[in-house]
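Quick one: structure tokens for this chain, please?
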Amino acid sequence: MQLHPSVQGLKEECTHLRQALHRIPELGYELFETHAFVLRALSQSRPDRIEILAGTGIKAVYMTPGARQTIALRADMDGIATTEQTGAAYASVHTGQMHGCGHDGHMTMLLLTAKLIHENRAKLHTNVVLLFQPAEEGKGGARNMVAEGALENPHVDRIYGLHVWPTVPSGKFGVRWGPMMAQTCEFDILVHGKSAHGASPQMGVDAIVSAAELITLLQTAITRNVDPHQDTLLTIGKIQGGVAHNVIADEVTLSGTLRVFSSAVYDQLRQRITAMINGLSTATGAKFDFKELMHYPCVDNPRPLVEEFYTYLDDMSDVMLVEPVMAAEDFAYYQKNIPGLFVFLGIQGGKNEHSLHNCHFDFDEENLLLGVELYARLLGLVEKPN
């Protein structure tokens, strides 16, 4: 995609903003430095109104007289709980916290888009809402943003989001219509047994043995109950339980995730897991409590928005069709309320040699200008070349 001169001219500022944000990663909703930084930068682009949502989230509104629609653009703000090992001059100054998922880049693209809006207000024919969202990483910040009015006053007609993506080549976008990122559920299963001396197991109910049986049984919930053409994953990632070598454990906690692309399959699996737990409880005497900790819907792109997206490209060489990925994204909460399109922004090559959430993750800032160009075309601030 060819960059408009006004976008190309943002290259130096793009690098500065991204690296400044990269230095100050924060987690969840506790984004106090990040929040202040974004507010300072936004103030220079003079939105008509700024609201604070979800604690440290920011909603910036640009109103256009006579506008018939409102478009929202969203960037997540939080980092991940990892100590950065890139060795970059702009590496994180917060030990144990890192922008390892590219959210510093997402904020940068929105801040630069705000600058273009301010400089080209006469070209704007829609209302624009810029959403800077906290707590994407496992805490569902989008849900709270929606609950607190992110998509109202003015009512948002559609929303767009970009995510830097290491497996998409630099200079390209990745997209698909239909399910693109998984519906996911993080859960704990508490197994309650009865403690006894290891020499007298008949006096107790062994929570560890019951948990082990459940772990094996859970895998059949997918392999023997779900159509193999339906991509589905169930992972038990953590087990905690027991107090001593010679004591029958009375409590074990299993922690895991369930990932699917269909709500119907998810409901089917939840019913099957409940049946398995009830049956195993009868067989072993243990009690099982299933606790759903976090649930993200599936990112599902409407075909009309994907086809519209194609019209903003120079040609189809700017985009690649991606396969659905099992990772989750709370952008799906916006899509549950209004039409929304989620697109991957290629960063493969250059400084990027690692996956998202890797302690060495980094990318070339110049890739972000492609995202700014897309947003600018979408809002009518620049025209694509003939």
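The radius of gyration is 24 Å.
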